[in-house]
Hints:
The chain contains 12 helices and 19 strands. The longest helix has 18 residues, at 390-407. It has helices spanning 11-16, 30-33, 54-67, 117-126, 141-146, 154-157, 185-190, 226-239, 279-290, 332-342, 390-407, 432-445; strands spanning 21-23, 47-50, 70-74, 89-93, 100-103, 108-112, 129-130, 164-170, 176-179, 200-207, 209-210, 214-222, 244-252, 267-276, 296-297, 300-301, 321-327, 352-357, 379-385. By secondary structure, it is of the alpha+beta class. Helix content is 26%, strand content 22%. The radius of gyration is 22 Å and the shape is globular. The relative contact order is 0.14. Strands 12, 13, 14, 15, 16, 17, 18 and 19 form an 8-stranded antiparallel sheet that branches. Strands 5-6-10-8-9 form a 5-stranded antiparallel sheet. It has a 4-stranded mixed sheet with strand order 1-2-4-3, with helices on one face. The chain folds into 3 domains: 11-93, Uridine Diphospho-n-acetylenolpyruvylglucosamine Reductase, domain 2; 100-210 and 431-445, Uridine Diphospho-n-acetylenolpyruvylglucosamine Reductase, domain 3 (2-Layer Sandwich); 214-419, Vanillyl-alcohol Oxidase, Chain A, domain 3. Residues 1-5 have low confidence and may be disordered. The N and C termini lie close together (9 Å). Residues 73-80, 83, 94, 113, 134-136, 139-140, 142-144, 146-151, 196, 200-201, 313, 418, 453-454 line the site of flavin-adenine dinucleotide.
Amino acid sequence: MIFTARPTVELDTLRRQFSGDIHAPGDAGYDDARQAWNLLVDQQPALVAVPRTAQDIAAVVRFAREAGLRVAPQGTGHNAQARSGLQDSILLNTKLMRGVRIDAERRRARVEAGALCGDLTAPASELGLAALGGSSPDVGLVGFCLGGGIGWMARTFGLCCNSIISLEVVTADGQELTCDHQRNPELFWALRGGTGSVAIITAMELQLFDVPELYAGAMLWPWERASEILHAWREWTLDAPESVTTSARILQVPPVPEIPEIVRGRQFVVIDGAVLGSAAYAEEVLAPLRALEPEIDLFAMAPPAALSHLHMDPEHPVPGIGDHQMLEELPAEAIDQLVAVAGHESGSSLLAVELRHIGGALSRIPAGAGACGRLEAAYILFAVGTPMTPEMAAAIPPRLAQVKAALEPWKATRPYLNFAEHPTDTSTAFGTDAFAALQVIKAQYDPYDMIHANHAIAPAGR
Ligand SMILES: Cc1cc2nc3c(=O)[nH]c(=O)nc-3n(C[C@H](O)[C@H](O)[C@H](O)COP(=O)(O)OP(=O)(O)OC[C@H]3O[C@@H](n4cnc5c(N)ncnc54)[C@H](O)[C@@H]3O)c2cc1C
């Protein structure tokens, strides 16, 4: 069904029931409010609603139904590029709902819809607990979990979505529901890694972990050594224990003033990540990498909060064009191919070309898992460019295509939706049964496809 805005429905009706902010096209605040974290994305929604409460979200949904509009939830807009046009949608920006409450004794946290990874990882760490965030503190926790969620403890603890204890949601008919293993279990299953197509999350309860000892950081070498270092890392990952999660990257650090001088404007090959365990244990695990004598070695004992910053991701909105590919395996030949298209003699201007080592707990489906139980691959390739000039913008997509083509022979079948930054056929991301179940749940809770997700699941029968 195609929704068409019906201007006869009074916006004042919504304003009366709403404690947050509403911005319509032409209003002074509209342009700021429609901006996504990825500055390249030009979102042009029918309206922007910025709720403060779950009741506000329910009011927006009821209004949208009356007005013949869809509702497009957004935490930050890190993945805004994957979503189709918003001209018939209300952009529901949850940035004012960032409340976090931690119950340290029960090792649980309740976070509101707009909480960022850092909003939880930092205070949990102060209490001696670890939350499963990603590599960047300003990614939204809800969006992160809707696609799975991997961070630097992922090979030990698995996907973040499977650490969700319960969810509070608003459904497409404006009802507020709680879901967990007992209450509305099908919704609970679908929203753990099955995209945000079936309901709007207003809050989540997450498990926290005791991580008494953690050794984390990065080792950097000049990028002329990329081939040697990436080959050594690849071999090392083949026997690396599940207590360690790392990535290896060719990184071209931008020449911007806020970056420390020691790395500013330089090119490196970087290995970063974390080991769960004592310094002595971690030093033993990382010894083969240290033996390669990094120019900069930042690995040390660290609190869990440090995991949100070690990857040096931008912690503010930036323009970016990225792409990914899951890899079934990573033979030595794949490293040669990658260095040929992204190394120092390749002419690449990509900001980062990264291999993440997955496997471990990520390869097993835990008891009671959600729609994304595990990742069926051994490594992930992720590459990204920052289009600072029109020439750079033009050069990025063909270089990304070249990087992906170089590793095509080792490509795994299923994409990882969190790293899918373009419109993606979601049927390829799940097994046949799981995808069919997601479509049935979508048809049950949102038969007219009112919820406009980045990675859409069409209702069964449509
Ligand atoms: C710099 C950077 C670093 C990253 N690092 C990692 C990483 O280490 N590990 C990893 O797994 N991923 C990582 N990602 C990917 C990230 O997890 C996804 O982009 C994720 O979708 C971001 O969620 P968000 O809420 O910030 O983004 P948004 O674009 O705001 O949200 C993504 C989608 O989630 C849905 N959604 C958001 N809020 C709600 C809600 N309340 N109810 C229902 N649906 C909702 C919407 O469909 C929305 O389009 C990274 C991305 C970037 C750009």
